[in-house]
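Contributing new complexes? Match this layout with dihydroflavine-adenine dinucleotide.
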Amino acid sequence: MEHFDVVVVGAGAAGLFCAGLAGQRGRTVLLLDHAEKVAEKIRISGGGRCNFTNRDVGPANFLSDNPAFCRSALARYTPADFIALMQRHGIAFHEKHRGQLFCDDSAEQVIRMLLAECAQGGVAHWQPCAVAGVRQTAGGFELDTARGTVSTGRLVVATGGLPIPKIGASDWGLRLARQFGHGIVEPRPALVPLTFDAALWAPFHDLAGLSLEVEVQTGAGRQRGRFLEDLLFTHRGLSGPAVLQISSFWRPGQPVHITLAPAAVGVALREAKLSSQRQLGNELAAHVPARLAQTWLRTLDLPATRPLPEVRDRDLARLGDSLSRWTVLPNGSEGWRKAEVMAGGVDTHELDSQSLASKRVPGLHFIGEVVDVTGWLGGYNFQWAWASAAACARAL
Ligand code: FDA
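Output block (do not edit by hand):
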C-alpha cells in the first residue's frame, strides 16, 4: 500500500494551493480529484478571467454561523500574498470594480500557476480518481481509491461546494464530515439569481435585460444584508451583482427591499408639475431608464401620456414611494445549477481556526468552500480558498 504524509481530496482552488504548499514544506503529498479536468471552477470563474482576489478583504465580507472563524486564516494569508505569487509567475492582472482583481488574459494562467507550484512541491496528482471510502487507522487514514488503497497521516478535504454538479461538484466532503461526527450548517445556494411566481412576475417581463444601479436589502440583525450594486431584470426574476449579493442573505419567505430610484424622485416630480407641461412618462424617464418608467406607470395604472400638471400629487407620491421602496417576495432561487457558491457547510465550531483541523478527529482538515464560510461576490471566495489552504498547509 502506498503511503503519503498528506492526501488532499479535491483539485480545485483550495486543494491545489494546499497540496503545492505542503509539498514545498517537504511533505509527501497525493492530490486526488474525481473529475476529468482540474480546477473547472477556476476555469469558468470571472467570465474566464478569474476574479482571483479583492484588494480589500476582511471578515465582514463573509457569512458564517461563526463569523469570527475566518479572521485568523484571512489575516495570515492576505490578498497581497496572493498578488505577490501571481507577480512571481509573471501573470498580468487589473482591477475592475471595487477592488476586484482579474487576470488580463485567462483564468487558465491561475491553474497553470497552481499546477507549477504543485510540481515544485513534488505533489503526486491522480485525476480522474474517485475515492470510494475512508477509514480511520492508528496512524491516520486509509483511502480506497480507483487506483488502489493508500494510507496517510493527514487527510485534507477540499471538495468544494454543491453548485454546478455537471462539472464535478459533489457532497462527498459533507458526507465525510458527517461520517466523522461533524455537524453541517444546512447548505443553500448563494450568489444566485432569485425567482418569482410566474403570474406575479408577468408585468415585469418587458424589463428582461434591463440593468440599473440600486440599493438592495434583506434580513435583520446579524442576518441583514445591504448592497449598492447593479440589478438585472431577467425573464424569470432578478439577477445582477445586487441580487447575487443579497441572495446569500435571503431566506425563503423573506421580502427583499429595492430602491430603484431615490425618495427624492417623488418630490422632484411634484416640483416639476409646477413648471412643466411634459407627459408623465417623459418626466419620469429623466430619473429612471425609459423602459422602467413605461412599465412602472403601467403597473400603477398611471397613463404615461398624461401631462404632468394633470397628475394628482397623491399619485406622484405613490409613484415615488413605489420606486424608492419596492418590496418583492421571491419564491425561490435558480438553485445549484446557477449558484456561484454554497452557503453553509462543515460547522466551524468543531474546527481549529488556525489550522482548519478537526477538533474531533486528529489529522483531518477541511478547507475552502466545503467549510461554512461564504464570501461576497468579488473575489472573496477565492481569497478564502487561498487563505484556508495556506493556514492548513502551515500545520501539515
Ligand atoms: P472547488 O470547487 O474549486 O474544487 C473542488 C474540487 O473537488 C473540484 O475539482 C471537484 O471536482 C473535486 N471534488 C468534488 N467532489 C469530489 C469527490 N467526491 N472526489 C474527488 N474530488 C471531488 N469566486 C471568486 O472568488 N471569484 C470569481 O470570479 C468566482 N467566479 C465563479 C464563477 C462560477 C460560475 C462559479 C460556479 C463559482 C465562482 N466563484 C468565484 C466561486 C469559486 O469558484 C469557489 O468558491 C472556489 O472554487 C472554491 O474553491 P474549493 O477549492 O473549495 O472548491
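Reviewers usually confirm one structural detail per submission. For this one: Residues 215 and 221 are 18 Å apart (CA to CA).
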